[in-house]
Design a protein that fits this description.
Chain A is of the alpha+beta class and 299 residues long. Chain A is 38% helix and 28% strand. Chain A has a six-stranded antiparallel β-barrel. Chain B starts with a helix and ends with a helix. In chain B, strand 1 and strand 2 form a beta hairpin. In chain B, strands 1-2 form a two-stranded antiparallel ribbon. Classes of the chains: A alpha+beta (299), B mainly alpha (175). At the A-B interface, helix 1, helix 2 and strand 1 of A face helix 1 and helix 3 of B. Chain A: This is Cell shape-determining protein MreC.
Chain lengths: 299, 175
């Protein structure tokens, strides 16, 4: 028997062409999932969510033990900061009140800063880790949409890149994707300095912030937050801390390396930020809710 | 009946556990970030291919590869080709290589290393990564192989035992 008959050879060639076509198709259209894809994602996501619960519980125990071991040192460090904190808290309160009264005076209700948080649990991380992304257990039925900001308690981690009815995918900011840009602000002493976060230095493990106007003076250790001007992210989400400042390739603007505030390994609970400034959905909810209730009592 | 369902059940379990273990990665080791990629499912499928049935392993490889592509990678046709291919190669070695547990372990690790290298070149080619091959070796390939070696040392004999139980049961049914 010959090893490769004619029929087999043709089959091999056809399947190879088919595979190349499939790969190029899925590489091109990465914003939307097709219907069978959505179905598979939802089904696997549902089962994965069940497995993730005990797994998260176990990792939670490990984390607890870990933090218990560090308690003494952490306590010492925190005590030192506690005094500063009390002063800071009172200052924040007065500023908040002042801000509110000033807003009332100018009758400006919505702000770029406000958002509705959606709590979500990480059910999986892309196991092969070539493309940095995680999968969450909330999807479009819970109001998640593409491009929403995703963060942990520590800071920004990424944005939603793909949504199915029950799951959503997050593209982390430490991605290689050159189109992933975050409009950011350096909180200087007296002024806000704008720039764009684009790119991630794999070897240093730090984000790169570009297009900072060279007339401003930027210092190491200053904090970087999202500016809210990109139209996607709410304002004021912490991104990280500046570790080094250089001039960029052309010498026209400054470039800064930023150490991300969020810890990217062991992600468990995240918050999806739904920006408040687009309030159409909210109005609909308010209108819908009472009608549903009256229907319920009528039946 | 229980043993009959055991082989696909373990495959499903490993498929679901892989991303949970991926949450531990990347790890800081001596100031260097190290990526550990769990490859439990394909290791198990290689065992199935060698000890049980090549054809079945290829079918499982195709199904789970497709699920993997759709759910995690979003590039359809990557793992759904690589998984069956690896299973096919593993099954074909049975004629030439003695099926001792140690040799099977080494063979499956070599196959996984080959798969990692192919994946690296694929992602390098489509510009998903820009790291050089040496960096890839140090931060991904070697740690991944070591981690998966640990996994196989712990559970390889369990796989072999379970698959053998199924083979024996099948032989009894046929006689």
């Amino acid at each position: 028997m010959p090893h490769f008959s004619n029929k087999k050879l043709i089959l091999l060639l056809v399947s190879m062409i088919f595979i190349v076509a499939l790969i190029s198709f899925s590489l091109r259209d990465r914003q939307n999932a097709t219907l069978p894809e959505q179905f598979i994602k939802d089904t696997v996501g549902l089962v994965q969510g069940l497995v993730a619960k005990p797994a998260n519980y176990i990792t939670g125990i490990f984390n607890d033990i870990n933090s218990l071991l560090n308690t003494y040192e952490e306590n010492k460090r925190l005590k030192m900061r506690l005094e500063d904190f009390a002063a800071l808290q009172s200052e924040v309160n007065t500023l908040k009140n002042e801000n509110k009264s000033l807003r009332d005076i100018v009758e400006k209700e919505s702000s770029l800063r406000e958002y509705v948080p959606i709590q979500a649990t990480v059910i999986a991380r892309n196991p092969d880790q070539w493309e940095e992304k995680i999968i969450l257990d909330k999807g479009s039925t819970q109001g998640v949409q593409v491009n929403m900001a995703v963060m942990t308690a520590q800071g920004l981690i990424g944005k939603i890149s793909l949504v199915t009815p029950l799951t959503s995918e997050v593209e982390l900011i430490q991605t290689n994707n050159p189109n992933f840009r975050v409009s950011a602000v350096i909180q200087g002493e007296n002024e806000e300095i704008f720039g764009l976060i684009e790119g991630f230095d794999v070897e240093r493990n730090e984000l790169i912030m570009k297009r900072i106007d060279s007339s401003f003076e930027v210092k190491e250790g200053e904090l970087v937050i999202s500016s809210g001007l990109g139209g996607i992210f709410p304002k004021g989400i912490l991104i990280g801390e500046i570790t080094e400042i250089t001039t960029d390739d052309f010498g026209l603007t400054k470039m800064a390396y930023i150490k991300p505030a969020a810890d990217f390994s062991m992600l468990q609970d995240v918050i999806i930020a739904k920006r408040n400034i687009i309030t159409i959905d909210k109005h609909e909810e308010l209108i819908n809710e009472p009608t549903e209730q009256t229907q319920g009592t009528g039946e | 009946m229980v043993i009959r369902l055991l082989i696909p059940f373990i495959a499903i379990l490993l498929f679901l556990l892989e991303p949970e273990f991926a949450l531990f990665s990347p790890i800081e080791l001596n100031g260097q970030t190290v990526f550990l990629v769990p490859r439990f499912l394909i290791l198990y499928l290689i065992f199935v291919s060698i000890y049980y049935n090549r054809r079945r392993a290829v079918v499982y490889g195709l199904i789970f590869g497709l699920l993997y592509d759709v759910f995690y990678i979003d590039i359809i046709g990557l793992y759904s080709v690589l998984y069956p291919l690896i299973c096919l190669i593993a099954g074909s070695t049975v004629k030439f290589i003695h099926q001792h547990l140690v040799i099977t372990t080494l063979l499956s690790l070599i196959l996984v290393a080959i798969m990692e290298i192919i994946l690296y070149y694929f992602f390098y080619f489509i510009n998903f990564t820009t790291i050089t091959f040496t960096v890839f070796m140090m931060t991904r390939l070697v740690p991944t192989i070591v981690a998966n070696l640990l996994f196989l040392v712990m559970l390889g004999w369990v796989f072999k035992y379970l698959i053998n139980a199924r083979v024996l049961q099948r032989a009894r049914e046929n006689t």
